[in-house]
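Hi, can you check this record?
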Amino acid sequence: MASPLQPLSSSSGMGTFHCHHSSAPYPKVGREVVLSPEPGEYIKEKLETTNETSYVFDALKENEDVRDESDLNIGEHMVLDKDIDEEEYCDVDSEEEEIVLVQAAPLVRTINMLQGCRSVDEFERLNKINEGAYGVVYRARDKKTGEIVALKKLKLEKEREGFPMTSLREINVLLSVHHPCVMEVKEVVVGSSFNDIFMVMEYMEHDLKGLMETIRYPFSQSDVKCLMLQLFQGVMHLHDNWVIHRDLKTSNLLYNNRGKLKICDFGLARQCGSPLKTYTNMVVTLWYRAPELLLGCKQYSTAVDMWSLGCIMAEILTREPLFKGVNELDQLDKIFKVLGTPNKTIWPDFLKLPGVRIKFTKQPFNKLREKFPPTAFVAKTPLSEEGFDLLSRLLTYDPQKRITAEEALQHKWFKEFPFPKMKELMPTYLSRSDGGRRSSSIGPLVELRKRELCQAEVGVSGLFG
């Protein structure tokens, strides 16, 4: 297992490339590490070796609740010479090396791994298959090999002063974590300018959410077990490498016609460690967000992903999201109506969370079983006792008691009949993206996420954050 303090990039073997659009000398004051600036946390200062004015981050600022640099800002940007751990940020008085934290200069774009990249012109773009908050995805063909790939164009229009943090983090994670159930980045290619940056990834015919909205019949129990096994395997690998995905949902799971499932979209992924650090709670799409996040917790770990997996398992079984709140309060209300209102007996830290000051309607009973009746009742989606036990342990209120991915893989549900189907025997479906867009949901969930992204962009925290 990787050290919790080891930067992800240490295993990626990436070099450094500087793309200069100006002849102005780049400041050489120690080692340059560029962070996304926070209001009120930087001062104006002339650097010795340049005539340009830069903003120098006040790394010595003390006794202030500074928001974690990983917090969701789609306008964030970063220039990296070398990834360092957060503990180094304050080490500006080191005798060995001076670290200067600066805002990226508008005319200088620096990013690892761009040197020697192929041109995007070496790929034939066949059709657009998806568009998300962080980029457009095309189905494309490598002209050299003939291979069909997915080409993700990163959105840089808001990044006049550097490379977007979300894209940088996604590339960093995907180049550092290799697993059959995690989407692989084959390479990074560039367009006519370094404003046009693309990730080349394996082509997958479907996203799970779009697929479930279009197929006529639901997945069988054996199918569901096959999908959940792959999902647990991928998430276990992430957690073993100290990575929290922080946005697991059915639309971020890709499925191909060979029965393989892969986790994608790592724009919110974060490296975690021990002891726990403070992060933003404005992560994870609302319907899949753990109750501790909804209640304002900012010190969390891999358990937030496991709650999301419980929501995903329920959605695969029913083809309907389990908790469809319209805002954070409504989301909590819907969770409490199904699982019962939590208390300090089942969740000792419950009363310590900021959100408990809100008076919620008391619902003392767990009604989850009503939505997933035993196998004997076939009018609704059936779920055996062992299957219900796994679902219940994923949707456990107390994150300390919530099942881990490793434990889930050993659960008895996967060992009882019907057994998980082999990937080679999984059903295949006609791919709509072969000739058009991949099916996607433009609905209330998308609008909710857009609103949250806008809130995060201007520094607005969650309901209780």
